[in-house]
Amino acid sequence: DKMASDRAKPLVKLRCEICNVSVSSSRDLEEHKKGRKHKQREFELAREQLSPSADKRRVILGLLTRYAPVAKDAEQALDAYIDRRSTTSLDTKENGIGVVLRPGKCKAKSEGGVLLYYKYTQITQPDKMTLWQDALCRALHLTGRIRIASEGINGTVAGDSLALELYMSAMKTHPELEMDRSAFKESEGSAHDFSGLQVMECKEIVSLGIPPGSLKSTEGGVHLTPEQFHKYLNPEAVNPDEPVPPGLGKGSRTILIDCRNAYEWKVGRFKNAILPPTRQFSDWPKFADNLIDELKLASGGDPSTKGVETRAQNTTPTAVMMYCTGGIRCERGSAYLKSRGVQHVYQLKGGIHKYLEAYPNGGQYEGKLFVFDKRRLVQPPQCDVVGKCEVCGVQYDHYTDKTRCCTCRALALICPDCVQKLTPRGETNADDQTVEKKKSPKPGNLNYVCKLCAPAEETLPAEQPPSDKFEKFLAIFRGPMCAGKSTLFNKLRQSTDERLKGVVFVDHVAIKGMFRHLGDKARRESGKRWAARIADESVKSKEVRGIFIEEMSEECLREHMAQAPEEHGYRVTVFQWHIDIKLAHKRNIQRRAARGMAPRSWEEMVANQKHWEAENNALRAQLDREKEGRNGNGRRVVWVDGGEGDALEVVMKTLTE
C-alpha cells in the first residue's frame, strides 16, 4: 500500500527561471545549470543588462566609464566616432544587445586598424570580464578573437581607428588590466579582416600542451626591446666596454629560437634561427626537450653547429634568444626552458610586430609576417621572398585555403603550377578557364602530404636487385558471402605466429595505397604517403614482409594480376574462396540471428554465389591461357574450400612455400 501511495504522488518538478525549463530533481537542475545552453542564456541576459539602451553614445560611454572615468580626449574621440558611424543601424533583437555588430567600410586604410595584445595579470572574475569585453567590442563594432582566463587576457581586435582608440582607453582605465599603450601592437587593417567577434573564457590564454598552472607567468625570460634584440643578434658587434646581460656579450654563443609554427616561419624569419617543425604551439615542449638534449643547454656542454655560433671557451654561459609574432608564446616558451634548467633566456618584447614598428624596412628580419586573420601576411615596404614552393622549390610565399596538407590540414606553400598538377581527377583548378569544370574544388582537396606527415625517405640500394626475387608478398582474400574469409582474416590478424612477423593487415578501403607501397621506385613515394595514413609505423620500414587484404574489386584485381611483379620484388597471391550454397545459407542464418538481424534471402545468396562462380571461371580461364596457376611472374591463385578443412593452415603453408 505504501509503494502504491508513493507511485500515486505527483513528481515534484523544478523550473529554471532563466531557460524556462522543468526538471524532476535538484540534481538535474544543477546539471542543467552547468550545461552550455544555460550558460549561453545567462550570458545573453547579462549582456542585455550591460547595454539596455539603443542610444549609441550613452551605451559606449557607459561601457568606457564602467570601472573608471575616461579622459577628455577619449570623450572627444567618442564624439568623432559617433559622427563617423552616424549611418549605423540599430537593432535590439540581434544578440540581445542594443548596438549591433555590423562592421562599416573604412574610407581609407588609415581609418582602420588591427590591435594585437596580451597581458598576464590576475583576473578575479573572468566571466564578468568576458561580458564586459563582448559588450564593449560589439558597441564599438570591433571584430576579432579574445581569450580571457584567470591568468590574464590575450586578444586581437580590428575595426575603425577611432574605435580602437576608445578600446585602448577602456583597457588602460580598467583596474585589473591597466594596460599601457605600448602593450598594443598596431597594424593596418579593418573590421573585415575577421569574420566576426569571438570572446571566450578559457583555462589559459595560450596553450602550451602541458597542464594549466604548471608554469607561472612571472617565470619567463628577460624582455629585450627591439633595439636591444637587434643589437644582440650580432654579439661580435657589441661594445666590450658596454654592460650587457649575461651570455649576450662579445665572445659568447647565442642561440636564436623561433617559437612559431612551421607554416609561419616558412614565409619569414630571422637569419640563423632554429626553426621548430611544429604544427601547433602545444607541440613546442617536445621540440624544446629534444633541443635541450641535443645542444645540452642546461648543462652548458658543447652545442651542435647547426644554427649556433661557436665559442672559444666552454666557460662562457649559453644564452637563448627567442621571438614570436606578438610575444605571448615566448612568455610560455621561455618559462618552459627555464623550468628545464636553461639559465639565461631572453625574449623579444612585443614580438615581431614591435620589431617591425622599430625597423619598418625589416631590419634583420627576412620575408613577411604571418598573421591569423584574413590578411594572412603583413610585409615591410622592402622585403624579399624567402618562402619556397614545397613541391617544386620555386620562390613563393602566398597561402590560400585550398593549398593544405590532405592529412593534417596545415597550410602549405604550393605555387599555382603545382596546384594544377596536384588537382585530383574529375576536378579542375579554379583559376584554369581553359578546361571545362566538372566539379568545384573544395578547400584542402589537393593530393599533397606535407613533410611533417610524409614518412622519412628510405635509402634504397642503387641498381641492386633484392637477394630474394620475391622477398615480399601481397595476399588478397576474395569470396562469396559466409565463405569464412573475414573470420580467417581476423584470426590471422590476432595470431602471434612467428611466420606472420612483419605482416600488415589492411581492409579493402586502403587497397590502392598499400599496393603502391610495394610498387616500383617511381610510385614508391606516393605509396608510402598512403601507407602512413592507414597502417602502423612499421609499414614505413624495410621490415614489412607482406600485406594481407581482406577484399579487392575485380577491376583492381585484374589490373594488379596483369602487371609484372618480378620487377617490384613481390608476389601476388589470391586466395579465392568457394563454398556450398546450402552451407553458406545456413551460416548466414546463424550469424545474422546472433546479431539480431534478419537473414539474407535465399535468392540473394544464390545470386551472390553465381556472381562468384562466374568470376572464378573467368580467373581460371585466364590462368589456363598462361598454362599454369603459378608462373614465373609471381602471380598465382589458390582455391580455398570455405566449408571443409583447415583454411588457416592452407593459407600459412601457401605463403611460406
Write the layout of secondary structure elements.
Layout: H1 2-8, E1 14-16, E2 21-23, H2 26-34, H3 36-50, H4 56-64, H5 72-84, E3 112-120, H6 126-139, E4 143-149, E5 152-160, H7 161-173, E6 185-188, E7 197-201, E8 222-224, H8 226-232, E9 254-258, H9 262-265, E10 268-270, H10 284-295, E11 319-323, H11 328-339, E12 344-348, H12 351-358, E13 365-367, E14 369-370, E15 377-378, H13 416-422, E16 472-478, H14 485-494, E17 503-506, H15 511-517, H16 521-534, E18 546-549, H17 554-562, E19 570-578, H18 581-594, H19 602-625, E20 635-641, H20 647-655
Parallel strand pairs: 4-7, 8-12, 9-11, 11-12, 16-18, 16-19, 17-18, 19-20
Antiparallel strand pairs: 1-2, 3-5, 3-6, 4-5, 10-13, 14-15
Helix pairs in contact: 3-6, 4-5, 4-6, 5-7, 15-16
